[in-house]
Design a protein that fits this description.
Blueprint (H helix, E strand, L loop, with lengths): L2 E6 L4 E6 L1 H10 L9 H10 L31
Antiparallel strand pairs: 1-2
Length: 79
C-alpha cells in the first residue's frame, strides 16, 4: 500500500497521504533537473511566449518582435 489514510479534524474526514518512502521517490522524480530538456516543445513555448524571460529563457534577440498566442477561430455565436 502506498497511501495511508490521515484524518483531518477540521473537515472531519479521511484523506489519502503517500507514505514517506513513496513520497521521497515521488519528490526525486519530479525534482527540477537542468539536464532534462525537450528541445522541440521548449522552442515552441519560447517562440510563442515572451513570458519566460523571468526564467532566463529568451528565444528572440532583444530587438525582435514577439508573436503572442492569439485566438485564430471565433465561432459565429461569439461574434
Amino acid at each position: 500500500m502506498i497511501y495511508t489514510d490521515v484524518y483531518d479534524d477540521e473537515d472531519k474526514r479521511f484523506y489519502p497521504e503517500l507514505i514517506d518512502e513513496v513520497q521521497k521517490i515521488n519528490n526525486e522524480n519530479f525534482k527540477y533537473d537542468e539536464t532534462k530538456d525537450i528541445p522541440y516543445l521548449k522552442e515552441l513555448i519560447l517562440y510563442w511566449s515572451s513570458g519566460w524571460r523571468g526564467f532566463g529563457l529568451n528565444y528572440y534577440p532583444e530587438n525582435a518582435s514577439v508573436h503572442p498566442i492569439v485566438k485564430t477561430y471565433i465561432a459565429e455565436e461569439e461574434k
